[in-house]
């Protein structure tokens, strides 16, 4: 080369011996100008996506992020077509994975209407998930051969009624927000100073005492409602747990 470097066959990659026969001189890496064709290939190679990488389509990414929304029912749960609820004894379905539903047909047993699984399946997709509604059932027989359940239709909750009940409950408790904040302050102060409650009772501090009494009264009223709403067993420890 003009710079004094020598060509060594076998280790110099810029010129092959065949090309050297056609040319009387050669240039090393530092002196030889870059090839436009080689740069163009290099830019093409680095410009596109790398080999071996799988490109994620937007729809696939959306399904991954919203999996719970697309499959709202768990395997083993029972559902019913909302339109079929107009029937007295509608067919019900059991979720079998994320794509199959097994049908349960009604039948009479000792004057009671029960449901038994049959060898009928239906496919379902995320697009039609809104036509189904989850239902409560009671297992009567569960074996390898058959499964018999009772559709507890009376225990179904109307979504509109549930939302109205939730809003009513929030409105009923919202008026105690300020009292509850002072109540929490009292508990924190007692945790930091074990003599705090004794001091406010001794000093008759109305700021704390009035708010504590309001929350205590509301809590006791809710406790009584809970205890009297259910016929608890005598040996049940729930009542004593609620009382504490």
Automatic annotation (TrEMBL):
Residues 26-64 are annotated as: Disordered. One of its GO terms (cellular component) is nucleus. Residues 26-43 have a biased composition (Basic and acidic residues). Residues 139-235 form the DUF4211 domain. InterPro entries: DUF4211. Pfam families: DUF4211. This is DUF4211 domain-containing protein. It comes from Cuerna arida. The lineage of its organism: Eukaryota, Metazoa, Ecdysozoa, Arthropoda, Hexapoda.
């Amino acid at each position: 080369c003009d710079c004094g470097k020598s060509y060594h066959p076998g280790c110099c990659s810029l010129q092959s011996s065949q090309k050297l026969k056609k040319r009387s001189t050669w240039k090393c890496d530092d002196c030889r100008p870059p090839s436009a064709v080689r740069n163009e290939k290099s830019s093409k190679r680095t410009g596109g996506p790398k080999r071996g990488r799988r490109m994620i389509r937007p729809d696939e990414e959306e399904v991954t992020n919203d999996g719970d929304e697309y499959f709202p029912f768990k395997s083993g749960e029972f559902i019913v077509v909302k339109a079929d609820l107009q029937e007295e004894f509608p067919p019900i379905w059991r979720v079998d994975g994320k794509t199959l539903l097994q049908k349960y047909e009604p039948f009479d047993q000792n004057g009671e209407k029960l449901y038994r699984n049959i060898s009928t399946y239906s496919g379902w997709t995320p697009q039609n998930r809104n036509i189904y509604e989850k239902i409560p059932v009671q297992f009567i027989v569960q074996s390898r051969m058959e499964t018999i359940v009772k559709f507890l239709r009376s225990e179904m909750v109307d979504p509109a009624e549930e939302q109205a009940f939730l809003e009513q409950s929030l409105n009923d408790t919202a008026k105690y927000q300020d009292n509850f904040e002072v109540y929490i302050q009292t508990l924190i102060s007692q945790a930091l100073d074990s003599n705090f409650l004794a001091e406010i009772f001794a000093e008759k501090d109305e700021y704390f005492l009035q708010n504590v009494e309001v929350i205590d009264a509301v809590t006791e009223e809710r406790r009584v409602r809970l205890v009297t709403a259910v016929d608890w067993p005598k040996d049940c420890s729930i009542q004593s747990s609620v009382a504490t």
